[in-house]
């Protein structure tokens, strides 16, 4: 009877130790949702760096925007104020607001993204829907997204 209690205690102790180990290991591995740190220098960043930066911050047309930023920089020289970025074709006020905290004009780029995943980009608001091969006459003009969705 005594050995049965000892083995049961030993099993419970081992399981409790494993549970504590898993709890602490999981919290350090995934840490709290780390926020981005540092800033991206938009005057010295390459087109690829800008595309990556814009995509990481949830701007869906990141490649086009990065090309527009680089061509604007070539034709007008380096940016003197971050608000000048609004003059770049394709940068709306909403997109500027998403990245303004993470850009700078001088110094070295030290931007590090957070752990969160960037938001996916869909050309229509909402999740994509499959397109039927055969017309089903449920939507006007057989649109896959229906009349309640906005067109680009």
Automatic annotation (TrEMBL):
Which BP terms in the Gene Ontology apply to this protein? protein secretion by the type II secretion system
Question: Mind telling me which GO cellular component terms the entry cites?
Answer: type II protein secretion system complex
- The region called Disordered is annotated at 113-152
* Any Pfam family: HHH_3
Q: Which PANTHER family match?
A: ENDONUCLEASE/EXONUCLEASE/PHOSPHATASE FAMILY DOMAIN-CONTAINING PROTEIN 1 (PTHR21180), ENDONUCLEASE_EXONUCLEASE_PHOSPHATASE FAMILY DOMAIN-CONTAINING PROTEIN 1 (PTHR21180:SF32)
Q: What is this protein called?
A: ComE operon protein 1
Question: What's the source species for this entry?
Answer: anaerobic digester metagenome
Q: Which gene encodes it?
A: comEA
